[in-house]
Amino acid sequence: MKKVILSSLLGLFAIIGAKAQADSDLVQIGVKGGVNFANLTGDDIGDTKTRTSFNAGFVAEIPFSERFSIQPEVLYSGQGFDIEEIDQNNEFDTDDNVEAQLDYIQIPLLAKIYLVKGLNIQAGPQIGFLINEEIDYQPTDDAGDIDTDVAEDIDFSLAAGVEYKFDGGFFVQGRYNYGFTNVFKESDLFGDPDIKNSVFQVGVGFMF
């Protein structure tokens, strides 16, 4: 819980601080949410499947010109991956798959360039704070959660995507997040594996 509060406050402070540097009359603050298609990438990753989860949070747009804005956000982001059913005899009463859940509070800071009215591209760095880490062998039920402690607490990544923003403040967007930080902690048994987060996001939002 302390991680959630701290990382959320950091994100909100980033939004407030950026707002103070621009014309406050033009700054917009909004909400957004969408679907995550998360997996892992890297030289040392095995056979994993995409985990479908969600993202939701707050967003601000701070314009510095007609075509250029800065967009800070603070989001909950469900990430990780799915594993094929790992027990042939179904000893653990598994569902069709097993989820490795790595859930973050993500704080992206994006540069946003409008190509034409409404249509923009955006890219920038993102820092993620791990708030939940578990294996769930019954992802369609409340049972089956096994807490783990193998992932790094902080994840640095690059976020890039495209968005269309309508006149009324409603917007739709697609984004890809590529991790630079190795997801799992270095250990004597596994060394420092080259395994990083890889997440596609699609979603909608509204600017007030």
Automatic annotation (TrEMBL):
Name of a matching Pfam family: OMP_b-brl_2
Domain (Outer membrane protein beta-barrel) ranges: 20-184
Signal peptide bounds: 1-22
Domain of life: Bacteria
Keywords: Signal
Cited SUPFAM superfamilies: OMPA-like
InterPro entries noted in UniProt: Beta-barrel_OMP_2, OMP/PagP_B-barrel
Name of the protein in question: Outer membrane protein beta-barrel domain-containing protein
